[in-house]
Specification:
110 residues; mainly alpha
């Protein structure tokens, strides 16, 4: 989890998510007669490396998901402030004005 905290701190300072290239994206070629042995060796090496990289990718995915969640919350608060609250104010303002006018009219004319 220290890696995640370091990445979060770096992201906050630079406002960028670091990119990591996946080791399996590189092409491996076997030109020797023992191609199967080379493939097996490279696959075990890649599997050992990929578990660490997978953890880093999952950490980056969590960071990206958290960032998207925070952006969604900002958008939701903007919708609330710009659409919902004015509509509620308009509705309750008219109700209050109607109630107030009924009360005043009742006092003046009855």
């Amino acid at each position: 989890m220290n890696l995640v905290n370091e990445i979060l701190e770096a992201e906050m300072q630079t406002d960028m998510i670091p990119t990591i290239e996946h080791p399996l994206a590189e092409s491996t070629s076997c030109s020797s007669e023992d191609g199967e042995d080379n493939i097996n060796e490279t696959s075990t090496e890649n599997s050992e490396v990929s578990t660490d990289d997978d953890d880093e990718y999952e950490d980056l995915a969590v960071i990206e998901a958290r960032k998207q969640w925070e952006e969604s919350l900002v958008q939701l608060s903007q919708v609330l402030n710009w659409v919902v609250l004015p509509l509620l104010g308009k509705f309750f303002g008219r109700k209050a004005a109607l109630w107030t006018w009924k009360w005043v009219a009742n006092k003046l004319y009855h």
